[in-house]
Design brief:
Layout (H helix, E strand, L loop, with lengths): L4 E6 L11 E6 L2 E6 L8 E3 L5 E3 L1 E6 L21 H6 L7 H17 L2 E9 L7 H12 L5 E7 L10 H10 L4 E2 L9 H15 L2 E6 L10 H11 L5 E5 L8 H14 L1 E5 L1 H7 L15 H6 L4 E3 L16 H12 L3 H10 L3 H7 L14 E3 L5 H6 L6 E4 L2 E5 L10
Parallel strand pairs: 1-4, 6-7, 7-8, 8-9, 9-10, 10-11, 11-12, 12-13
Antiparallel strand pairs: 1-2, 2-3, 5-14, 14-15, 15-16
């Protein structure tokens, strides 16, 4: 049997520690065999006993406003929370070429860190119009050889009473946007925005992804309304939201109840540790809250959760190298999770669980699935997280898209 590619000596995340390595056979961009000592010919990539996983998944990202931190006004002091205002102040300077250049540079760094699927949030507020949506649509087509991109259109700065806001969302959805969302905390009528998002989702048969329950006031929560509408219209499995920082301010028993409710309604949460950690507790001078929800607790109680980068080099998160394993490691540090079991769940949150959030049907390592694969130098998923490991090679539909040579010491002769 002749194949297009064989990845040999691979260790799978699901394999027992003492199980033998397997070979992964690929033909026409899809996995056709996963077995030991695969009897087949064709070009081979030797994983050398290292972990091979499905490609990483960025389930909540902002390509359109990446890499603008050097263009916005500086923050006057730590206790001011004006990230949205500083971002909004320069949106009028965005052009299609500018957005595309920043987004493509960011995306290429994501690719080199093993990302093969991404849901990117796209702002279509009247002060930027559809420029971001059009730039991301072009990017989606131009980089289809390396990554599948799902744009989620939303309004960051408010919907209710904002002239032209609703028209922008409807225009994008009619042009094929597969996901619609909203920035609830910045709307003067958040519940009305939630209802309108679901109304458009039903009308156009698309998925929903909110920015929800950021902050720390646990007496005002929006996720119950989202769950109620999800149940009412039968949108289970098609609804997600990012942040959920308020859950980190709850006792564990209340967190468990949140996890149970999210699981019952099929609503997923993307935890965004870099952004939430940077923004949390700005009203506090000392003993500052962390603001990062322990998604492991929610998962233990039935929810599906993911970990994602969110922002790179903008006022909301003025850091980032597009390494999703670094973000997962940051998360584990903040919520104080360690060991093979808990860190294994962290790895799930940047692979299988994130894929579930995005409803990626052909994800995983099994015959018939798309050959979107990443090769690691570690043998266990938990070690990938613990060491902020860099992937050694990545494949999209069986075609190698990057190869990394690790640095080597030059010892004296």
């Amino acid at each position: 049997m002749a194949l297009d590619l064989i990845i040999r000596n691979a260790r799978l995340a699901s394999a027992a520690p003492d199980s033998p390595a397997v070979d992964i056979g690929i033909q026409n961009g899809r996995i056709v065999a996963v077995e030991t000592n695969l009897k087949a010919d064709g070009p081979a990539h030797d994983a050398a006993g290292g972990l091979v996983s499905a490609g990483l998944v960025e389930s909540h990202f902002h390509l359109d406003k990446a890499m603008i931190v050097d263009r916005v006004p500086l923050q006057p002091n730590r206790m001011v929370r004006d990230h949205m205002e500083r971002t909004a102040s320069i949106k009028h300077t965005f052009t299609p070429e500018d957005i595309y250049a920043r987004a493509s540079a960011t995306l290429e760094q994501c690719l080199l860190h093993g990302v093969t699927h991404m849901r990117t949030q796209v702002e279509v507020d009247p002060n930027v119009g559809l420029l971001g949506f059009e730039a991301i649509e072009q990017l989606r087509k131009d980089y289809a050889w390396a990554i599948d991109i799902q744009p989620c259109v939303f309004l960051q700065e408010g919907w209710t009473g904002v002239a032209g806001a609703d028209e922008n969302l409807v225009g994008c959805v009619k042009r094929g946007a597969p996901v619609i969302g909203g920035g609830i905390r910045y709307d003067k009528d958040g519940p009305a925005q939630i209802r309108r998002v679901f109304e458009l989702a039903q009308e156009h048969d698309i998925d929903v992804d909110f920015h929800l329950d950021g902050g720390y006031d646990v007496n005002e929560l929006d996720y119950p309304q989202v769950c109620e509408i999800t149940d009412k219209i039968g949108w289970q499995g098609r609804v997600a939201f990012g942040h959920g920082s308020k859950f980190s301010c709850m006792p564990v028993k209340q967190q468990a109840a949140v996890g149970k409710r999210l699981g019952q309604s099929g609503v997923s949460l993307a935890v965004l540790p870099a952004t939430d950690l940077f923004n949390a507790g700005r009203h506090m001078e000392h003993t500052v809250m962390r603001g990062v929800t322990d998604a492991n607790t929610l998962i233990e109680n039935g929810a599906n959760c993911a970990i994602s980068t969110n922002n790179v080099l903008n006022p909301f998160t003025p850091f980032g190298d597009c390494s999703l394993t670094r973000i997962a490691n940051l998360y584990a540090n903040v919520v104080q999770r360690d060991g093979p079991k808990d860190l294994g769940v962290c790895f799930e949150m940047i692979t299988d669980r994130a894929a579930k959030l995005m409803r990626i049907a052909d994800y995983g390592i099994a015959a018939g699935k798309a050959a979107d694969l990443v090769v690691w130098g570690e043998t266990r998923p938990s070690d990938v997280i613990a060491k902020c490991a860099l992937p050694l090679a990545g494949f999209k539909r069986g075609r190698r898209i990057f190869l990394r040579e690790l640095p080597a010491l030059q010892r004296p002769s």
